[in-house]
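Progress against Task 2.4 (sequence-to-structure conversion) is shown through the following example record, which the project officer requested during the mid-term review.
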Amino acid sequence: MSSKYNRIFLSVLIVVVVGAIAAGFWQMGSPSHQRQVRMDEERLNNIRAIDSAIINSKYYQNDHALPESLSQLETLSRDTLKDPEGGEPYEYRVLSTSTYEICATFATDNSNPKSPRGRSNPWLGQEWRHPAGHYCYYREVGSPLNVAPPPMSVPAK
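Structure tokens generated for the chain above:
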């Protein structure tokens, strides 16, 4: 009789363990998805560092002019100026004397902070949300919180 209960207990235990593992994958995503999220977080950290370096650059502080290229930002390492996965440099375009774009290609969408799989940082401001794919951040020096038009308005082609 006890061997029957042992089999039932073992079966229930197996179902619970498999269910817990499946729930973990559903909540967090697969290991490859988590790697994509980490790469996107690194891309975003790089872009935020570039954004800060542009505002604090000698070009803008001394001449009130934006640097013509990211290579002019002497305070950043070369690794910060390129994609952590592919190694391509981030796109940077000066649009006017006080506006510019920084573009990257993201593997995941962090635009929905409540997404269980997005794992987006709850302290990350709305201006740093992005869809999956190629996306450009429109930035304006001197605007409050350095925020320009909503970042989800028009994804780049």
